[in-house]
Structure formats: structure tokens, C-alpha cells
Amino acid sequence: MATSSTDILLNNNGRYAGGDTLHRASHPGMQPIRPSKRVAVLACMDARLDVEDLLGLQTGEAHVIRNAGGVVTGDALRSLIISHHLLDTREFILVHHTRCGMLAFTDDLLKAGLEGDPASEKMLAQATGRAFANCGKCASSPEAFHAFRGQPEPLDAAPDAANRQRLEWDVRRGMSAILNHAWLPTQGPDAITVRGFVYDVDTGLLDEVSYPGPMTAAG
């Protein structure tokens, strides 16, 4: 079986975690618009993740889409559909990571804090270690913050079995959203593949998340 681009990038990640520098930061000159590895990566916006470095990607090889949590939102799906159908990417990679800020709150808690609920403000301040300044107003957007399901924990909490499970739940939900989307084919000559990972910000290594599998506490 031919080695996939994702497998090559995983090998690069092992070298990165071992201290190798694979990404070349210099401008490469003129390149085609289509990503040469036919890969699209959806990753968290966390400042500790340099996606090109940790995957050993070069400029022009992949689309890199980022948001808070690396969540498969409607806008992320918009980008992935365009990436596939117009720019010929075939392999999608989802990257969540340890110590993620999306583990430190719930959607309702953050909304209440922003609107001025004192108890919520206090909880958010305790979780983040900074003064939380409310806005004292309601807003219709964003409709959701997509905090990870489960019991919130302090910001930047050390990895453990409980928060690892919460990360894996969300990776699988993202994979499911892609694999079951009407406009992202999983069979035939135009099929895409999806693989999901949790990146350890302490070691630099990616760990693959099995799919299918549990997406909530009830499975």
C-alpha cells in the first residue's frame, strides 16, 4: 500500500519532537495554487502549535485552517469543502492538543460572564488566572463557542485521563461531521480521508485518535 501524505507528516512529527528542524521558512518562489501534498489541516489557534513546524510542512504543501480548539464548525467545513472541490486536497488532518483552553469553560459559563453574571465572572477568573472583564451586554453572535464537553478545569491543566478523553470526544465529533457531510465524499475516485490527533504540547508528539469511538460520556 502506498504511503499517504499523512503518514509522511507523522514521520516528520517524530523527527520534530526529536529536535529536527524540517520546515524551511524562506520564501520558496512561485508555486501553483493547489497544495502539493493534497492535504488540509484543521488545528487549534494555540500559540504553542506551529503547524508547519510540527508536521514538517513546506510552503505550498497544505492548507492550514485554524480556530479556537481546531473545531469542525460551519466555517471550517466551508473551508474544507472549498479546499477539496476547488483545490484538490484529499487528506484531512484534525489536530487538538493537550492543555487546551477549550477545556476551561462551558459555552453557557462564558456567555453569562460576558453578559455580566458575577458568579460566572468569578469562576472564569479562577479558571484563567486573570481578571475577567464583562461587557454587560447580550450578543447574537457567535451562536456557540464550542467549548469541549465535560467538567471544566483550570486553564493549562496538566494532561490526565479525564481531559484526554474530552479531547478525543471532540476529535471524533469533528471527524464524524466531516465524514457524514453530504458534500465531502468518502467513496469513489474523489474520496477524502480524515484522521484525527491530539498533539502533546509538552513533548511535541502527535497521538492518533481512534475512530469510530465514544463522543460523549455515554459513548
Structural summary, described in words:
- The protein folds into 2 domains: 5-102 and 153-209, 3-Layer(aba) Sandwich (Beta-carbonic Anhydrase, Chain A); 106-144, no CATH class.
- Helices cover 32% and strands 14% of the residues.
- The model has no long low-confidence stretch (mean pLDDT 96).
- A 5-stranded mixed sheet has the order 2-1-3-4-5, with helices on both faces.
- Helix 4 (107-115) packs across helix 5 (118-128).
- The chain contains 6 helices and 5 strands, in the order H-E-H-E-H-E-H-H-H-E-E.
- The protein has helices at 5-17, 51-55, 74-87, 107-115, 118-128, 161-179; strands at 39-44, 62-67, 91-97, 193-199, 206-209.
- Strand 1, helix 2 and strand 2 (62-67) form a beta-alpha-beta unit.
- It has 219 residues and is α/β, with parallel strands linked by helices.
- It is globular and about 55 Å long.
- It comes from Ramlibacter tataouinensis.
CATH superfamily of the largest domain: Carbonic anhydrase
* Whole-angstrom Rg: 18 Å
Distance between the ends: 33 Å
Sequence of strands across the biggest β-sheet: 2-1-3-4-5
How many domains in all?
2
Mean pLDDT: 96
- Second CATH tier, the architecture of the largest domain: 3-Layer(aba) Sandwich
Order of helices and strands: HEHEHEHHHEE
* Annotation, overall tally of beta strands: 5
Reported by name, the CATH topology of the largest domain is Beta-carbonic Anhydrase, Chain A
Helix content: 25-40%
Outline: globular
Which ranges are low-confidence, i.e. pLDDT below 50, for 5 or more consecutive residues? none
**Main sheet specs:** 5 strands, mixed
Structural class: alpha/beta
Strand content: 5-15%
Family: Belongs to the beta-class carbonic anhydrase family.
Binding site for Zn(2+): 44, 46, 97, 100
Cofactor: Zn(2+)
Keywords: Metal-binding, Zinc
